[in-house]
UniProtKB/TrEMBL annotation:
Entries under PANTHER family matching the protein: CYTOCHROME C OXIDASE ASSEMBLY FACTOR 7
Protein name: beta-lactamase
InterPro entries, sorted: HcpB-like (IPR040239), Sel1-like (IPR006597), TPR-like_helical_dom_sf (IPR011990)
GO molecular function: beta-lactamase activity
Keyword Disulfide bond part of the UniProt annotation: yes
Pfam families assigned: Sel1
EC numbers on record: 3.5.2.6
EC class: hydrolase
Record GO biological process: response to antibiotic
Keywords: Antibiotic resistance, Disulfide bond, Hydrolase, Repeat, TPR repeat
Catalytic activity: a beta-lactam + H2O = a substituted beta-amino acid
Length: 166
């Protein structure tokens, strides 16, 4: 019985990943409507990365009618499912008040999740919040720490800011 369950889990996850890969290929070819349908299949099945990409399509109005609220729900589903890019997207939306009320506190929490998932831009943006004290208590040493982490992850802009803090 355990073997049957394991085989089912393997095949199911393969289908979700395949749906994502086909959606990504359609997206790269400019077939946004097709991509949205494939990403929706993956997202509905719990594949977090599909939720993230579908969120970007809704945010940008590519292949679907632009809908910020739907994009935010999809990013939340992706973030809750462990997709760090979705968490970063939510951080940006809350930081700049795009489709939601500006909320630096929420932005900082989502940037932290994105940074923990090794998204360099999220570490950089989290460092900026610590540098300015928006959404978190101002802390230059933590700002420097997050700038360094972003730099280590390859975000050159953060390396330059780190130098300015020394």
């Amino acid at each position: 019985m355990e073997k049957i369950v394991l085989i089912f889990i393997f095949l199911t996850s393969f289908c979700f990943e395949n749906s994502f890969k086909n959606g990504h290929k359609a997206y790269q070819n400019g077939e946004y409507k097709k991509a949205s349908e494939l990403f929706k299949q993956g997202c509905d099945s719990g594949y977090a990365l599909s939720c993230s990409f579908l969120g970007f399509l809704y945010f940008n109005g590519q292949g679907v009618k632009q809908d910020y609220k739907k994009a935010i729900k999809l990013f939340k589903k992706g973030c809750d499912g462990g997709d760090a890019e979705s968490c970063t997207a939510l951080g940006v939306l809350y930081n700049y008040g795009k489709g939601v009320k500006r909320d630096y506190n929420k932005a900082s929490k989502f940037y932290k999740k994105g940074c923990d998932g090794k998204i360099a831009e999220s570490c950089y943006d989290f460092g900026l919040l610590y540098n300015t004290g928006e959404g978190v208590s101002q802390n230059k040493s933590l700002a420097k720490e997050y700038f360094n982490k972003a730099c280590d992850l390859g975000y050159q802009r953060s390396c330059n800011i780190d130098i300015k803090l020394n």
